[in-house]
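Field: COMPLEX_INPUT
Field: COMPONENT_COUNT = two
Field: RESIDUE_TOTAL = 746
Field: MODE = joint
Values follow.
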Amino acid sequence: MRHLLSAGDLDVDSACLILDTAAQLAAITDRSVKKLPTLRGRTVVNLFFEDSTRTRISFEIAAKRLSADVINFAAKGSSVSKGESLKDTALTLEAMGADAVVIRHGSSGAPHRLATAGWIQGSVVNAGDGTHEHPTQALLDAFTIRHHLRDNAGDLAGVRVAIVGDILHSRVARSNVLLLRTLGAHVTVVAPPTLLPYGVGEWSCAVSYDLDEVLPHVDAVMMLRVQSERMLAAYFPSVNEYGRRYGLDTRRMGLLPAHAIVLHPGPMNRGMEISADVADGERAVMVEQVSNGVSIRMAVLYLLLGGMTDDVKKET
Amino acid sequence: MPQEKTVLRGVRPYGEDPVDIVVAAGVIAEIAAAGSGSGRIIEASGLIALPGFVDVHTHLREPGREDAETVETGSRAAALGGFTAVFAMANTSPVADTAGVVEQVWHLGKATGLVDVFPIGAVTVGLAGEQLAELGAMATSAAQVRMFSDDGKCVHDAAIMRRALEYVKAFDGVIAQHAQEPRLTVDAQMNEGVLSGQLGLTGWPGVAEESIIARDVLLAEHVDSRLHVCHVSTAGSVEVIRWAKSRGINVTAEVTPHHLLLTEDLVASYDPIYKVNPPLRASSDVAALRAALADGTIDAIATDHAPHPHEDKDCEWAAAAFGMLGLQTAFSVAVLTMIDSGLLDWRTLADRMSVRPARIGRALGHGHDLKVGAPANICVVDPGASWVVEPATLASKSRNSPYSGMTLPGKVMHVLKAGKPTVEEGDLAC
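Field: COMPLEX_OUTPUT
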């Protein structure tokens, strides 16, 4: 594996390798000295064209725990806004010797372009591109689900997951549908028809417009952030109506099986897609998702740049 | 003093039996037995003669974007592509919405002299879709504009479209519509389908094209005027146009070479070389477009030649410009998609690349059958040759060809414009 651009690039073995590696690395970070020397002397650039403090910090901590040198490059705007172009930024980073570029970009496919246009030699990690994908988010979600429902081992065969909300604009949903399917889970996407992509019927998942009908039959439910501005473009009539039909509140929690968990990639709109009671409830695993995110990103950087699993085995 | 004659020796008109086509004083003077003509001989045995191609849809970028193309460089590309006439779209800077701008483009075309450049006038001032441009002034200018288009933008206001269709009747004009419902295509990046959903690129649904065409053919019927539909890209659009023609509505349509060959799957590379408007569609659309061109529902191949400087394609998808080069590859793509597939023969290909487009745009002196007395606008092609597309070697100032590295069949060898060679042995005549 040279780049991580799409969750669809991972087969079940490589996906499980990342999850297993993350589990091993998580054990290390539970120690008081949280550092591994593995990536000493390697340079990781966080190239963020969009603000995303959480994701950037997660990648930064992950790289630092592996002893990599980390550079944060916040590039406002893009070639559209007459700033420095993606290409020139890439050439600059290449000249400075970046071993890996973690890129967040508002334009779908920008990481793919960065990896394939011949501008740079290093590895590219997609940290979220437009409305396309966010593969490390899907990996950390799978890791969290596996931890709760599969005792942190193997794939997710037979696990039933509902992804609820703005599927159309969600890179988290796209990566999750691809990865969860690869791992053997059954996925149902739930949304009003306006917030489902054209052609979603061809995706490797089930589709429903009715959250109440789906909830009794899932082991995990993933609530997506829904921007209230979407109603201005007629995706739904009002925040209240959205919440009534697709929000996860206490009543709907009662429809879920007792073992089911609730995930959310954050940041949450409390009172819209998720009620405060549910968000703060004991079946909500959002805090774990955040810490698992660091382990997953360590595993990804480790496998892309280090690639020597023996090291980890020795340390553990 | 004896008149200078040029002889296309042993050439096969429309792929038929070899003859000598003798050209003098800008017209076809004689069609004689092969080997019998005398004068300046152009050896053309094995080659096919067709009427010079006419492109009703090019972007020559001058004035305003001379970094991408000029009338001169675009004319070179056109001549090398077998064209003897091109129509230059109005979305220049300043917009060709006045007699002054269209005359400037017309004069630049004359000065270059490789092809006849027919400027297209804007329908509305500044392409803004709000107020009719001075269509009559452009029609009566030296440029004699007959085709009007806001191409790049749709004349989306139904009332403006109706008035434009009516108004141009006074001078036998035609409105060439870029059919794109703007509200259905906000930030659209590629064909709306399963793939756009997977790639996370905003979809450009076929219905945004089809609904405008449906409205416009009904408007054209109502006001009894002439409508031309630019770059038809979907099977649904074909159905609407077929229905309109069956009703006797005065509508014509064009298809681009790239919509006859390329499909949306190429977008999965996120390489903006494949970014074009209207977008590349599904293979079922490609099949419908080929069939429609074959049965005449679609009248013409038009290139939508859209040069862009390298930096406008060497970037991420969303930041890239829409458009592809087309002039020098159009004939070969037509051979690949229409001749090699048996959908068209040489005579019907000539009809779609010369006769009908000339008629649509009222390109005087072009689109004539190869017969004695016709203006000697002739393209001679080698049907058996093939060539590898290398964008850097194309005559255009820009390099944004989606066919880079492809081997294409058919080669333009000689072109006569009004009897004078513009292309000899595949190179520009000096």
